[in-house]
Design a protein that fits this description.
Elements (H helix, E strand, L loop, with lengths): L3 E6 L5 E6 L2 E6 L4 E7 H4 E8 L5 E11 L5 E6 L4 E8 L5 E4 L3 E5 L3 E6 L5 E7 L9 E2 L10 E5 L5 E6 H4 L16 E5 L30 E4 L5 E6 L5 E6 L4 E6 L3 H4 L9 H4 L8 H4 L6 E7 L7 E6 L5 E6 L3 E6 L31 E4 L6 E5 L6 E6 L3 E7 L5 E8 L13
Antiparallel strand pairs: 1-2, 2-3, 3-4, 5-6, 6-7, 7-8, 8-16, 9-10, 10-11, 11-12, 13-14, 14-15, 15-17, 18-19, 19-20, 20-21, 22-23, 23-24, 24-25, 26-27, 27-28, 28-29
């Protein structure tokens, strides 16, 4: 059996990638089939693979036992052309990647680089971070110009998280990093023009045209999340909620990223005009800007024992949160409550968040235990959050069904390394 080096799930929860010592393989979730193999004899062994939604573009970082490329380079594979089309080179090893339809984010141990991607690739910024050996970084998907566009990463102070507003800081003329040396931290080499994927409009103004300039540069907002180092972070799809966990793995904290008056209650819904105006025009960007004001609104206890958390995942509607650990357990927390009211000037408006309830010792709504105590990645399915997937590095694929009472029952178990192959290899 091939050794799995890393796993990654695309934004929609419909595909996942597995890097092994023999190939990079892309799998379909429903049904579980292998969609694409890129053999290591062709590209060498790969340590990281990140899918761009369900497109032909795949971001790779070399690693493993037989790499053909350096681990400080990000290579973009175009499966339509069956070749690498872009290469981004950095000063040190690349630890993780994040992709959106309009951006690529590359994480080094103490820096994060942002690029326009995939059309007309260009560097936007480099920011200095706290010591980040795990390459922790999360970004909201760019699904609407009216939603918060946030980048979250560990801060310089132990236990802190930085939130960067990408709408303000991601404009071509804005740079959140004052360092003069940041411009040379990464070199971009374009080997081919990428025209096989149509991206969504980014930073679109009221007239539908992208904004091109800004006279302001917004600094990151710091969140004091934990006393020990941060191990996991997650953002919901609208950017209104941030979840954090420390290296102890016992407490999970939920923060609302903006005040209630500008975030519409903190759930998965829309935002008020203050946030929607982020998509108006560059000339009014500074005047319309609503600053981030993170506030802790909930706290959950995963357990009493120290564990290593592998990931936190919000459901698409922001009503549930998944937490997976090296104990082989996946905990499901419910954020939905109509009884909890906002404090601190909320005017009694009801929130979509529930505080920690520990009266009966029930820390999570539900949990399930995986047979193997190994690293795994989790995702909610596209069927209104009723399906939960857990994919483990031991090659096992688990699907659970969420009942109306909050219980989780296993619906499917398989070995994805032995999954059948589809004759059609294209992802599009």
């Amino acid at each position: 059996m091939s050794k799995v080096l890393s796993l990654s799930i695309n934004e929609e929860g419909s595909l996942f990638s597995a890097c092994t010592d023999s190939a990079v393989t892309i799998y379909n979730m429903e049904p579980l089939v292998a969609k694409l193999h890129i053999q290591s004899s062709q590209i060498g062994t790969v340590a990281l693979c990140k899918l761009l939604h369900r497109t032909n573009l795949i971001a790779l970082v070399a690693g493993g036992s037989r790499p053909k490329y350096a681990d400080n380079a990000v290579l973009i594979w175009d499966d339509h052309l069956k070749q690498f089309v872009l290469e981004f080179t950095f000063a040190s090893r690349v630890l993780s990647l994040r992709t959106r339809r309009d951006r690529l984010f590359v994480v080094e141990r103490s820096r994060i680089h942002g690029f326009t991607f995939p059309n007309s690739p260009a560097k936007l910024f480099t920011i200095e971070t706290g010591d980040n050996p795990l390459g922790i970084c999360e970004v909201t998907p760019h699904s609407s110009a009216t939603e918060l566009q946030l980048l979250a990463y560990p801060g310089h102070r132990v236990g802190s998280v930085q939130l960067l507003d990408l709408w303000m800081s991601g404009l071509p003329t804005a740079s959140p990093s004052p360092s003069s040396s940041s411009s040379t931290a990464a070199n971009t080499t374009t080997t081919n023009t990428v025209e096989t994927v149509e991206t969504e409009k980014s930073l679109a103004g009221a007239n539908g045209k992208p904004t091109t300039a800004a006279s302001v540069s917004i600094s990151p907002t710091s969140v004091s999340a934990h006393q020990s180092a941060v191990a996991c972070i997650a953002l919901n799809r609208s950017g209104s909620l941030l979840a954090t966990a420390s290296q102890k793995g016992t407490l999970i904290r939920i923060f609302r990223t903006t005040s209630d008056s500008s975030a519409g209650g903190g759930g998965g819904g829309g935002h008020s005009a203050g946030v929607a105006s982020r998509g108006s025009s560059s000339s009014s960007a500074a005047a319309a800007y609503t600053p981030l004001s993170p506030e802790k609104v909930a706290e959950f206890r995963r357990g009493l024992d120290t564990v290593t958390l592998y990931g936190l995942v919000f459901s698409p509607d922001s009503e549930y949160l998944l937490a997976s650990s090296d104990k082989g357990t996946v905990h499901l927390f419910s954020l939905a409550s109509s009884d909890w009211k906002l404090g601190g000037g909320g005017g009694g408006r009801r929130s979509a968040l529930a505080p920690l309830v520990n009266i009966n010792g029930e820390y999570s709504l539900s949990k399930f235990t995986l047979p193997a105590e190994c690293a795994c990645v989790c995702a909610f399915g596209a069927d209104h959050r009723r399906s939960i997937y857990a994919i483990c590095v031991d090659g096992t694929f688990h699907k659970y069904r969420l009942g109306k009472d909050g219980t989780c029952e296993r619906d499917n178990f398989d070995n994805y390394l032995e999954a059948n192959e589809e004759s059609e290899q294209m992802l599009l």
